[in-house]
Specification:
homodimer; 16 helices; 29 strands; about 30% helix; globular
């Protein structure tokens, strides 16, 4: 079926039946985009994530060599869509599990989780619905000889009829276009108004009533993952969500490496281009899927660590990695989104939540906001585990925070079968009465890997089932399921079956996970030491992060990630960064509260803290060197062991 | 001395001795600019003002035919510098009276006049010195490991140490540059802060202490004349001033004609280019003369009629001339001056004072501000005579305003020997006891023409000396000095002498001046009728306009321009537009007061007022058809007549 002389090739995608024509030489990923087939492409088409696998059923493609496909896959006609170049007419099958909806489950259930926490949608009950950018439908009477009020004042009068704004502002370009817009619209128009202090700025004016069409994009700008939600500002509901990997990953797994790279290669512009591109891609995907024009998206709010926000806005990030570790800005005023290259309404605004400092970013402030750490009567702990592990300990009168470089192990990075929470991700691992391990996947389909909650469970289960000892080393108990793999010994969690490989946990995976949890626990310990806090005094522990749909709190205590407090005091809050940012974009009260929280938090620099390395070393055990700190775990392990002994 | 083959020619200007080289074919005006010789060029080099006359002593120029030079002048080697093209090396003499300083006298004495009125400089005593844009010198301690505050927050903290700003904003570009600026400056920097409501916006940050270098340009954007003052915002003093003709004059004498022209020729951009160019030329001239960099000029404030402000900002001016006569905007927020093309500090602001409506502009609001019409216990009248004549009548509880198309006769336009107030301008004409006419020029030099105050005096004197009768027609009394000229009969005010022509008043000039004054008087009459005001009740009459250094109030009453009230109640206030705008740029309180005044004034549309035409017709006499309204004039004329009868 090869047609080497044809310059345009037809590509048919199965099972959707969508088809397109592309120039010969285009990539399959381009063809898919053109056909409206959404493929998971978490590296943005750079060929390193290996997630955009498709099967070429008929026709020819050019594919460069890659280590991301096994020989078996290659034999089966599987290619990376981003790397495969179209040489002829093609019939391609998109494996169901690789279509883009893999990403949607997590973000959707996040939205639900916060619905439960805050009544309905975040912000709605706790704070009044009062968004930064609102649309006001204005019905004005046209001027006549008895009413010669200027167009601009007529507009202001109509705005002020809807709310009190002592001072008003208008963008100059809008002022120039105003007479034309109002006359053509018969003085029936909608104003886009942004509020700051007692100043209301008319940002845009559109003919007719478009007040119902007012959306915001809420973005969690993670080092590894970028998540975007679409929020209807009129009804305060979440409409859709989408996630992607941060394509800056090309330049380093953590942001310190990325800053170094950018400095060495003069690549801060490129860093901005990448992350802005990722955000734009998410916005575009959601907008297309929902049939919403970009003009209806009037604001974007972002939360993320300080380096990511600096990259996003191309603020000087260099001193984030160099003493005295000073950001360009913690608080950043709302700017025009277009100034940062973000494509929404061309006059729409971009607001980034404020950060505490170089190592405690606005994602943590968002978490403190959504868990209402400021409204505590006793002591509360907030922990966000992403690429780094940030901890906030809040008393009635104070708030301390710290950051540990936990590494992105619980996000699945650096873990052989780590993956995002999506169909086929093992999200739950339990130990049966007989010491056998059981698992459950998202969507109950065939297992493809482990997401954060599954990894945590697996670590706890392997400890309880005596697969590993308290140092994390494989024991001889299940020697039949341990084999030597390319990275050293590995434990087979799910044996291979026809059509799929085994899912394993390597010795290196276990060590990685233990280091991650030890970093977080040591940070908690230092803050508790500094404030004289005992575990018993903790009223609540909120755990945020991309673990998946849920987190087993017993597992978290078992491995020594969290202090040993009763399970009912531990709450998994999912992506708190998104949830807090959503609150802030829905309510200026919440936005002001976030700014207050950022100002109130005291940052503790763990790297300069004399006790931190000790605490970290001691935490590099399961659950801890000092097992007496974890009485419930001690009891549980004793029980399991005795059970196994029988 | 002709060198036809040379492509570059040397031009020497006498008496300054300044010289330059220009390409053959360049105009003498270009050569003068290049040599640093400032010539009066009120039409901007378009060859219709006839003011840039120079004498070519040696060498050849090409000159097109012009009616602006007499045969005698041509014989003497006089050419229009803007029209004369250089053909060879030249020696040129610039007549002293034609150098640019002709413009300076008026503006300088305006500054003095307001110094007298308001104590020192306008704004200083009445309102607190609190400019829209201020510079704050900030001495910050550089960050260290004990003080990791972000640069942006460090800046805000330093700003807030100097004054309370509940909300702050920062321009995005400044935010991006901030770390670099602060580090290079060792955290010793100056912030440019613009204030609006309770929001303070950091507009720019400069290294070191530049707080002493903060200037504003105050512009009166007139239909005929554009005047600019340079004000030091630190000391609230006026440093310099400059004036030029509005080069839009090319497209019509009044703004209605210019709007029509722009509509017909799609020339609104060109209109903006012209007026912005005029303003930029004034700024440039002043800045060069004072050795001040444009970067130190941080704001521009403009006042002018509504059409001029619309032209300046390229706002839709079309409905100013069409029912229902609605401007795009009366109130316009401060914008970045660069957005309108005005060249000052690239982040500097432009604020235009608010207008009342299509026909009562911000120049009138400025006048109401500077004469404190809002602070009246009784009744006050404000009259601004420029190209139009606007009138404001203010009571304790109300303010009425109206506009009459007076025409620019008192600005010298359409008057044979009318000119701006400058050296050689006849500013004063009196009648001697013997009925003879006497005159005095600005600078006491040889007479060159008549400025506004001279024209008003001349009209009054000619009436008193029986040169004209109460209808304005020439009588036979001084038939020896009346001759037939190109425009009909003309009265020789100053006979010709060796080296200069006679200065005359033509029958058409007289009719023109009477029409102008009648329009203004009729407007006053209608407002007084509508409010039931009697002349006796007027506590004060403020007269503004470009009459010159002063105005003889007796003459103004004699010709019937103003109601017959005791002379001590009439105050000539010169360019009130500049003075009010200066107040506003020096004090945000004054700016807020101007906005309040614009809102409070009620506009009366004279064109739709049934009594206006009648009132106008009756006022087309000297002083008025109903001479009983002017008892002091009646008495004076009777006295003069009886004197002449002797």
């Amino acid at each position: 079926m090869t047609q080497p002389d044809t310059t345009t090739c037809r590509v048919l995608f199965e099972p959707s039946g969508l088809k397109t024509e592309v120039p010969r030489g285009a990539t399959l990923l381009d063809a898919a985009r053109r056909a409206g087939v959404y493929l998971t492409s978490i590296c943005g088409g750079d060929g390193y994530c290996g997630k955009c696998k498709v099967v070429v059923n008929e026709g020819d493609v050019d594919t460069p060599p890659t280590t991301l496909l096994s020989q078996k896959e290659t034999r089966e006609g599987i290619v990376l869509a981003c790397q495969a170049k179209v040489r002829s007419d093609l019939v391609v099958t998109v494996p169901k599990s690789h279509a883009l909806d893999t990403a949607r489950i997590v973000v959707d259930s996040d939205a639900h989780r916060f619905s439960e926490m805050t009544g309905e949608e975040p912000g709605r009950d706790l704070f009044a619905l009062d968004p930064l950018v609102r649309k006001l439908h204005l019905t004005m009477s046209p001027p006549n000889e008895q009413d010669q009020l200027a167009d601009h004042e007529r507009l202001y009068l109509a705005v002020r009829r809807q709310f009190d704004a002592p001072h008003m502002q208008t963008g100059f370009r809008i002022l120039q276009q105003l007479p034309d817009i109002l006359q053509k619209a018969g003085y029936d128009a909608t104003a886009l108004v942004a509020l700051r202090g007692d100043v209301a700025e008319v940002v845009d004016v559109e003919p007719g009533d478009t007040a119902g069409c007012n959306y915001a994009i809420v973005v969690d700008v993670g080092t590894t993952t970028v998540v975007a939600h679409l929020v209807d500002l009129t009804s305060a509901t979440t409409i859709d969500a989408e996630a992607t990997y941060n394509t800056q990953m090309h330049f380093g797994d953590d942001y310190i490496r990325r800053i170094m790279y950018a400095e060495e290669h003069d690549a801060f512009d490129e860093m901005q281009r990448r992350i802005v591109g990722d955000v734009n891609d998410l916005i575009q995907t959601i907008a297309v899927r929902q049939g919403i024009g970009l003009g209806c998206i009037t604001s974007v709010i972002c939360a993320g660590n300080t380096a990511m926000i600096h990259f996003l806005l191309n603020l000087d990030a260099r001193r984030i990695r160099k003493s005295p570790y000073v950001p360009a800005a913690g608080w950043i005023p709302p700017i025009r989104a277009a100034e940062a290259g973000i494509r929404i309404n061309k006059r729409g605004l971009l607001y980034c939540l404020p950060a505490v400092g170089a190592y405690v970013g606005s994602d943590i402030v968002a978490g403190a906001l959504v868990t209402r750490l400021d409204a505590t009567d006793g002591l509360k702990l907030f922990i966000d585990i992403g690429t780094n592990g940030e901890v906030v300990l809040a008393g009635e009168e104070w708030m301390m925070c710290a950051s540990s470089s936990a590494g992105p192990a619980f996000e699945g990075a650096g873990i052989r079968h780590g993956m995002r929470a999506g169909p086929g991700a093992i999200e739950r691992v339990t130990v049966g009465d007989d010491g056998s391990l059981h698992w459950r996947t998202v969507g109950d389909g065939p297992p493809r890997g482990l997401c954060g909650s599954g990894l945590l469970d697996a670590l706890a289960a392997m400890l309880q089932a005596d697969v590993i000892d308290r140092t994390g080393r494989f024991t001889d108990t299940h020697a039949d399921r341990i084999a030597e793999g390319p990275d050293g010994p590995e434990f087979t969690l799910v044996p291979a079956e026809a059509g799929r490989d085994a899912i394993v946990m390597t010795q290196a995976d276990v060590a990685n996970l233990i280091r991650s949890k030890a970093g977080v626990y040591a940070a908690i310990e230092i803050l508790m030491q500094m404030t004289g806090t005992e575990s018993d005094a903790l009223e609540a522990i909120y755990v945020a992060g991309g673990f998946g749909n849920y987190l087993d709190v017993t597992s978290a205590v078992t491995v020594g990630l969290l202090p040993d407090v009763p399970a009912e005091r531990i709450h998994f809050v999912g992506n708190a960064s998104i949830a807090g940012a959503k609150m802030a974009i829905l309510s200026r009260q919440a936005m002001a509260k976030a700014e207050e929280l950022a100002n109130r938090m005291t940052y503790v620099d763990l790297m300069n803290h004399p006790g931190y390395m000790d605490a970290f070393t001691q935490a590099n055990f399961l659950p801890h060197t000092d097992v007496a700190r974890f009485p419930s775990v001690q009891a549980r392990l004793a029980g399991t062991t005795s059970q196994q002994d029988r």
